[in-house]
Amino acid sequence: MKNSIIIILAALVVLSVSSGCGKLKKPTTANITVVCSPLPGKTVDVSNLKAELHGTATYDNLKYHFDVKGTAASSTGTMKEIAPGRYFLVVWKDLDASSTFSKDDIFGFYPTALDLAAGDEKNLTVQMYIVE
């Protein structure tokens, strides 16, 4: 009798632990995909860009960065597992290697703040231009 009770208790423990294994986990992060192209009527090489998500609209609080690759006419990049929050997206190519936005660099930004919630999948378009 004692062995039967132990076996039954063990079976209940196994069932209660394994019952959650097949359930889908609720997402805790967000993902974004960025497509970059030149401003209409402009010729700008948009290959090999860097995308950055900043915590401020002045682009001085870098939180995430990722590559945007493709051709001179169109590039795409994806960033996964972004913590929920408010971000500002800038995409650029630092042609003079100054590490700052400067004349002749290729630049673009998303015009509004990105308020990302867990589970969000955003597809964004950014038009690029040359800094004058």
Structure characterization notes:
By secondary structure, the chain is mainly beta. It is built from 1 helix and 8 strands, in the order αββββββββ. The protein has a single domain, classed as Immunoglobulin-like (Sandwich), CATH 2.60.40.1120. A 7-stranded mixed β-barrel has the order 1-4-3-2-5-6-8. The model has no long low-confidence stretch (mean pLDDT 87).
Report the uncertain regions: none
What name is given to the CATH topology? Answer: Immunoglobulin-like
Termini separation: 87 Å
What is the H level of CATH, i.e. the homologous superfamily?
Carboxypeptidase-like, regulatory domain
Q: What class would the helix/strand composition place it in?
A: mainly beta
Number of strands: 8
Largest sheet: 7 strands, mixed, barrel
Shape: globular
Secondary-structure map:
Blueprint: H1 2-18, E1 30-38, E2 49-54, E3 62-70, E4 75-82, E5 85-93, E6 106-109, E7 114-116, E8 121-130
Parallel strand pairs: 1-8
Antiparallel strand pairs: 1-4, 2-3, 2-5, 3-4, 5-6, 5-7, 6-8
How would you concisely characterize the structure shown here?
The protein is mainly beta and 132 residues long. It is built from 1 helix and 8 strands.
List keywords for this structure.
single chain, 132 residues, mainly beta, Immunoglobulin-like, 1 helix
